[in-house]
């Protein structure tokens, strides 16, 4: 298995877990309240799940991989912006930054295929 495939699997499983956790763990919902984005929690969780499934399907279809990784990178970029806006520290912001970078890398590597 190539490195890119491992990273895709890692990212997709992570986003599946985060998306599902929103619906099963009250702490995840309370974070969106803390962010001042309670109206967007469900949408964000659904986008995470759809993006994760898109990454998996993207292992077979490059165009789906490009859309999914780009969408998740954008979602995490916005997550970093929110963390900065609410003045979260580096430790609290690092997961969003990490997943932004990871999905941006997947996106760029997939662009090279086209």
Automatic annotation (TrEMBL):
Protein name listed in UniProt: DoxX-like family protein
InterPro entries recorded = DoxX (IPR032808)
Which classification does the entry list for the species?
Bacteria, Pseudomonadati, Bacteroidota, Flavobacteriia, Flavobacteriales
Q: Does the keyword Membrane apply?
A: yes
* Major site of localization recorded for this protein: membrane
Top-rank taxon of the source lineage equals Bacteria
- A GO CC annotation given for this chain: membrane
Q: Which of UniProt's keywords are assigned here?
A: Membrane, Transmembrane, Transmembrane helix
Q: Which residues cross the membrane?
A: 6-24, 36-58, 64-84, 96-113
Compartmental location: Membrane
Keyword Membrane listed? The answer is yes
Q: How does it sit in the membrane?
A: Multi-pass membrane protein
């Amino acid at each position: 298995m190539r490195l890119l495939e491992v990273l895709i699997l890692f990212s997709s499983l992570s986003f599946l877990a985060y998306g599902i956790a929103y619906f099963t763990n009250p702490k995840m919902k309370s974070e969106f309240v803390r962010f001042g984005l309670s109206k967007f929690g469900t949408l964000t969780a659904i986008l995470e799940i759809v993006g994760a499934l898109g990454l998996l399907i993207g292992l077979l279809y490059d165009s789906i991989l490009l859309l999914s990784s780009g969408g998740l990178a954008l979602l995490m970029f916005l997550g970093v912006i929110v963390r900065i806006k609410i003045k979260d520290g580096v430790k609290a912001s690092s997961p969003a930054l990490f997943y932004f970078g990871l999905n941006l890398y997947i996106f760029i590597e997939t662009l090279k295929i086209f």
